[in-house]
């Protein structure tokens, strides 16, 4: 969708340029382009769609509760009415009253008001130009107001200007339609100048909490996570961007990754999924300190950053489950096979008396593998601990996808949104992935097609999906030994030039092993799915010359944050 036209009477002041995105327009100081990264339009589009759908789900839950409460009150009134009649000594009328008279009482007890759809408050902790907050206010109908915060005075000045430009500021003496009374219109985007953590800590008591918190920093979101998990309402939504993939998705700065996220990164083609799991680990353990737990709704690896949407709830019983949803991984330095070491284990028993499920938590046994890779004899590196549970809520992603499909014209990046959501919706919950093209490099063979490998895995009784994180990759519940048997079968018909492989190469050890079974590469009907037909547009189309995470704006503040890498 091309952006909407700017207001006809707009005169762009000297020293500014007009930037339009979707419904919204902002004025950017010409000398400070770092204020805005236009390539993040996909991030903002996705966020609008996810918050809308989260809001609809939250409203359905509230409506259901409201109806149940109404029913409960009506029943209470009904039994009170019956009791009153009995007390009056009119026992013989009770039956009739129960069906007639009390119905009138019940009706009377029902509130006359219809259910009013709920509205919610968003806190954008790091707003820069305010473009994201402006879009939320204009494009999400359930928004009551957005608090747009930034530490920089220049950013806040820009925000105030942009809020006014989009007619979202407070107005005195407004005349309501069909009335002559003059009222004050509160601002739909409320600008706050200050430190993000201080603002969020001010909102942490249950009556001050907000419904949605958005963290979109330069680099890591780590310094803001403790405050964010506390100031979001029960069932509220936390949206987090981290652009420090040098820390999260390489092994160049393991000490920094551990300091920021409480886990170690890994080297491997699935390093971006591990980045998502490290951020989830940090969110989950931070929330757990306050008796809260997270439900990942969508965890996406995009271009040069990760973007996560998680629901935050309160329950000590759920917090306990985290230890069994957290794992470290031994990652082979030769062939990238990995072995999971879950930190804790949970045993369940059903009470014969109550039928309730009881959970018993135990420390785990280990290690899960010997000190050398059983497939290629290389050493292991340790990664994690990190979140080992599901990355997404498939039902939620399905709803966001439906929303985008029904509103394609409302998003500038809708083809890419559909592509990524389609793949994420079908993604298996199993941890990490492999790509046949990459593995063919390790085996020094010509690459089997994705379809061939998918068919072979399905014929061997495993499940398979794509991964949204890397085009051409597969997720499966098959162990590495089964995947390698498929490759060992493949090279029987597609021989490898062994003379080109050094005697000491891990590949030689891999290749020389016999397959444990003979793979069947014939077409399997399950190998074609919606997501296998999606050609994932992984990178922004027509990237700009300064494409990438962007640099900090000239912020007008002396405060410095630790370097991102
Ligand atoms: C990447 S920009 C935000 C971009 C914006 N969310 C968007 O979608 O256009 C990060 C902003 O965080 C602000 N910032 C950095 N540290 C902060 C802090 N401790 N409190 C508040 N704002 C901060 C910076 O001034 C900068 O404007
Ligand atoms: Zn290995």
Give the bound compounds: S-adenosylmethionine, zinc ion
Number of helices: 18
- Helix proportion of residues, in percent? 25-40%
Structural class: alpha/beta
Uncertain stretches of 5 or more adjacent residues = 555-565
Which superfamily, in CATH terms, is the homologous superfamily of the domain at 427-533?
N2,N2-dimethylguanosine tRNA methyltransferase, C-terminal domain
- The 3D shape can be described as globular
Distance between the termini: 36 Å
For the residues shown, what is the average pLDDT? 90
CATH fold-level assignment of the domain at 427-533:
Phenylalanyl-tRNA Synthetase, Chain B, domain 1
Identify the CATH architecture of the domain at 427-533. Answer: 2-Layer Sandwich
Q: What composes the largest sheet?
A: 7 strands, mixed
Radius of gyration: 28 Å
CATH class of the domain at 427-533: Alpha Beta
Widest sheet: strand order?
A: 7-4-3-8-9-11-10
- What share of the residues does DSSP label as strand, in percent? 15-25%
| Overall strand count | 18
GO molecular function: tRNA (guanine(26)-N2)-dimethyltransferase activity; tRNA binding
Region (Disordered): 74-98, 541-565
Organism: Phlebiopsis gigantea (strain 11061_1 CR5-6) (White-rot fungus)
GO cellular component, one term: nucleus
Keywords:
18 helices, disordered C terminus, Phenylalanyl-tRNA Synthetase, Chain B, domain 1, alpha/beta, binds S-adenosylmethionine, binds zinc ion
Account of the protein in words:
The protein is built from 18 helices and 18 strands. With 565 residues, the protein is an alpha/beta fold. The protein has a seven-stranded mixed sheet, sandwiched between helices. Strand 12 (326-332) and strand 13 form a beta hairpin. The chain binds S-adenosylmethionine and zinc ion. Residues 36, 40, 44, 126-129, 131-132, 149-152, 155, 195-196, 216-218, 553, 555, 561 line the site of S-adenosylmethionine.
